Structure formats: C-alpha cells, structure tokens
Amino acid sequence: MSRGTVGQVRSKDGTAIAFERRGAGPGLILVDGALCYREVGPGRALATALAQHFTVLTYDRRGRGQSGDGAHYAAEREVEDIEALIDEAGGATYLLGHSSGAALALDAAQRGAGVEALALYEAPLIVGDSRRPVPGSYRSTLAACIAADRRGDAVRLFMGQVGLPAVVIALLRVTPMWKKLTGIAHTLVYDATILDGLQGGEPLPTDRWDGVSVPTVVAVGQKSPAWFHEAGRALVELLPDARLRVIPGQRHNVKAKPLAPMLVEFFGAAVAVR
Fold first, then answer.
1. What backbone phi and psi angles, to 5 degrees, belong to 250?
2. E strands within the chain?
3. CB-neighbour burial class of residue 144 (10 A; exposed 0-12, middle 13-18, buried 19+)
4. What is the pLDDT of residues 35-76, one digit of tens each?
5. 55 strand-pairing partners
6. According to the model, what pLDDT value does residue 112 have?
C-alpha cells in the first residue's frame, strides 16, 4: 500500500507528532484507537480509499510509532496534538475517530479546535446493561503492569477486556505483531484515561461534549456486538446534529471498502453546506 508524504508537527508541549499526508481537497484527520498507529490498524487503507476526495492526514498518536511522548500524560495533550495537525492541514478540517479515537475526536471538537464535521466509528462507550462495565480498577491495573515492565500482561488484559478469545490472544503472542503491540502497551493507559467515566454502564455525561454542534455521523458495524449499537444510539441522542449509520457486514475492525463511500457521502454533504 502506497505511503503519503511524511512530516511532523510540534504539539503545544513540544512533542513531535509524525504524520502522513495523501490526496487533495478538504482536510480530513484520522484518529486511531487503542494499539493502532500508521503501521498497525485500519488507518492507511482508509486514507488510501479517501485520498481521491480529501487531503487525508494519518498520524501516530503520542507514544506510538515515530511520534514522541511527554513526561506526564494528560488527555488534553492529545487534543493539542490534533490541534497542531489541524493547523498543518490549513486550520479547518474533518475528523474521523475510530474506537477510543472517536472519544478523542469528540474531545477535540469540544475544544472548538477547527473541527467542521465528525465521523465516529464505534466509540467503546458502555451505557447500558448489554455488556459488563469495565472494572473501576482497570486503568490502575494497566498502569501497574507497565510500571512493572509486564507489557505483555497489559496487552492481554486489554484484549480480554474487549472480548478477544483467549485462543486468539495466545496465537497473537507467537506472531511478529505481538512485539509491535507490546512496544506501545503503555499507551493503553492513555486510552483508558480518555475513556474514564464512559464505560461504567451509566448514561453518557451531558456536559463532556455539550459544546459539540458540528455535523456528526455515528457509524457502527452491522455484525458488531449490541453494546456498540447501544453506544451509537446514545451518542446520536446526545449530540444535536448527529445521525446513525450501520455499515453492512462489518465489525469493530472495519474495512475501508464498505466504510469509505459512506464517509465520502457524509463529508461531501458537509462541504456543500460549508
């Protein structure tokens, strides 16, 4: 798969954030979820599919890939990373957030960071009783694993929490992918921080994203578990200009081919309105 033009921006705290740029047209930044970066996850395939219509920026979230990291993590630093990328893209862009990246994209829009429209794919919000809540000790347990240099344990904990079968986790441990995953295991604490208070089975807080008024599409995979659909409906009810789309045949690890046309249609409509 072809690469784009590689560059880096400096975030507000001086951290270098690596990115790739493809295509031409309105700016679109892809915000990855847990354990994903430019070399791992759906971003590159989506960027290639969307580059015919947009100037697409994929990037390594801080602590991953070729991006730097700060001495002390705060979710606000990740929003500032997105703001630096928005400036690089020309000052007004669309955001596509996948999984925990969807919550991060919402946080960026809440800050009024030049976000003109949002696409959110399966934010892992637990808002009802269709699955067990994430334990309150989850983030501290992850942090303890990282502090003890038990990075593999942190990855296994995360994968078990998201429902990956034990046999699949065992098979992953003997593949080259496992080294990539354990290499960024510390960032699982970052994602848990972003999702803090959003996975306890309670209704979404009404104040966290109360400033988000841009056009938003909330997408879920047809074959994904019920709790993702429940979360999608909750977001649509919460946000003032949101609509729900179900992507046929897809699960959480969404493919570019069925998702890209919906995104082109949605963002294209946002272009027409703008």
1. -105, 155
2. 5-10, 16-22, 27-31, 55-59, 93-98, 115-121, 216-221, 242-247
3. middle
4. 999 999 999 999 999 999 999 999 999 999 999 998 899 999
5. 27
6. 84
pLDDT reported for residue 1 = 53
Residue 17, both tokens: 């954030």
Q: Which of the 8 DSSP states describes residue 37?
A: B
- Tell me how far apart the alpha carbons of residues 181 and 79 are, in angstroms, rounded to a whole number: 23
Cite the beta strand spans of 23-108 per DSSP E.
27-31, 55-59, 93-98
Bridge-based pairing state of the strands 93-98 and 216-221: unpaired
Contacts of 249 (CB under 8 A, 6+ apart): 221, 222, 223, 258
Tokens standing for residue 15: 């951290």
pLDDT band for 255, please (50, 70, 90 cuts): very high
Reported confidence tier of residue 192, pLDDT bands at 50, 70, 90? very high
Per-residue model confidence as pLDDT tens digits over 142-154: 999 999 999 999 9
Residues ≥6 apart with Cβ < 8 Å to 235: 120, 123, 125, 204, 216, 218, 242
Distances from the Cα of 166 to the Cα of 17, 157, 160, 163, 172, angstroms:
34, 11, 7, 9, 10
pTM of the model: 0.95
State residue 117 phi and psi, 5-degree precision: -165, 155
